[in-house]
Design goal:
Length: 83
């Protein structure tokens, strides 16, 4: 099975993720930061982007929000696979 490639940038891989400070699970591109809330909505038009979504959730420290992902070794353990 192949990891699904982002339809927006056509370069990044898509992963399921739940940021430790919010309850919403989402799918994001590790390259362009496009974000979707479920697999059925994945298209070239994202539901949001990673930074905007976290700002909307009250997380405004960019360094902190990226550190929460990149320091979490499990973030890449949940890829979205092509059907």
């Amino acid at each position: 099975m192949d990891i699904k490639i982002c339809p927006c940038c056509e370069q990044g891989n898509l992963y399921y993720y739940q940021h430790p400070k919010i309850l919403t699970k989402f799918i994001f591109c590790d390259e362009c930061e496009a974000l979707w809330f479920n697999q059925s909505s994945i298209s070239s038009i994202p539901d949001n982007n990673f930074e905007n979504f976290l700002f909307q959730q009250g997380i405004t420290n960019i360094t902190e929000m990226w550190a929460d992902i990149w320091l979490n070794e499990n973030w890449c353990n949940n890829p979205v696979y092509d059907n």
